[in-house]
Hints:
Blueprint lengths: L14 H13 L4 E8 L11 H11 L6 H8 L6 H9 L7 E6 L2 E9 H4 L2 H18 L3 H21 L12 E3 L8 H14 L4 E4 L2 H7 L2 E2 L5 H6 L10 H13 L5 E3 L5 H7 L2 H6 L2 E4 L4 H14 L8 E4 L5 H11 L4 E6 L1 H4 L9 E8 L2 E2 L15 H11 L8
Parallel strand pairs: 4-5, 4-10, 5-6, 7-8, 8-9, 9-10
Antiparallel strand pairs: 1-3, 1-11, 2-3, 11-12
Amino acid sequence: MSSQFVVRSLLENDLYKFTMWQALLHQHPGATAEYAFVCRNHPVFPLAELKVELEAELDHLCDMLFTQQELDFLSGLRYIKSDFVDFLNVFRFQRRFIRVGIEGDTLTIETKGPLVHVMGFEIFVLYIVNELYFRRLSAGRETEILEEGRRRLADKIALMRSAPVAVDATGDFAFSDFGLRRRYSAAWHDEVVATLQQALPEAFRGTSNVYQAMRFGLMPIGTMAHEYLQAHQAFGTRLRDFQKAALEGWVHEFRGDLGIALTDVVGMDAFLADFDLYFAKLFDGLRHDSGDPYLWGEKAIAHYRGLRINPLTKRLVFSDGLTVERALALHEYFAGRIQVAFGIGTHLTNDMGLTPLNIVMKLVNCNDQPVAKLSDSPGKTLCSDETFLAYLRQVFHHQPPQEV
């Protein structure tokens, strides 16, 4: 086992963690929350075998502080406010808020405590587990695996350069790296980002990884995740109105910045029912993260047209399990009808010839109430309370997606 700790910096987190963190600190500082770790596929060996190493990694994480250089970088982002940076200056993860256990061969990880203290654990937990898993899986074959990863990355770059809708001087096809949480390793992630930055400077727009954005001089990319909207199910608003409350809170916090809204917490149809002319004008566009992306995009375009908004003034961001091939196909399909961009994750940072882990760590409880996401994709719904899940479906007239 390598003695090198996985986490290099507290800044090595997805941008949307910081943006949601700021909004929730300002608007709901007393909220409590609980998150749960889930592995959706079958690893080569039980993740429970990583418990001892994971505990040591979490001890290390909870000893870390932000550096002045990191805080200065955050301060340079116009939507990050000075009081939030002051909070981060004294912030330290608390070990007592995160527990690791074993149930049979299953690794369990739970965080429970004040929302603004536990929400930041998620991405760190996911990429720690990933790197520990792949260190062990790759032992003795590191060179071979890296060579395969480089070959596959070169093929992706060649495809983007040669595609009919390919990259040109105007940056016609635009994508970003969204691969922090499920990456093969930190070193490989650095290599991928540096290679893309050099090979595709017009198309490669940035990364969700704020630490790498600072290191490589890239744009940090991201707005909100499911947990932000889910938390509003427990903030005292009538359940039917939680999406409107969440979107209103976002507008109040960021005043026009970070204008891409996430649509699939209770399904696209229910989202569009709440996304009226007011929000459609205030937000720059929408992000897709479950369900058929073509059908989703058609619904978005029709919605904008129904509101007499020119779709060409808005942007759709696709981010659901994308490959380069699928992103190029979506770009060609929607070209000239609406602006599009792509966040590509695991396909960039963990395409090494090994089966990636499908792991998540989701908000399951807020203010001692269950919360849930009603996904438009089979297998993505996660909730600890079936009664609440049924009630949520009833309120939003949401039909469970059919397994294929």
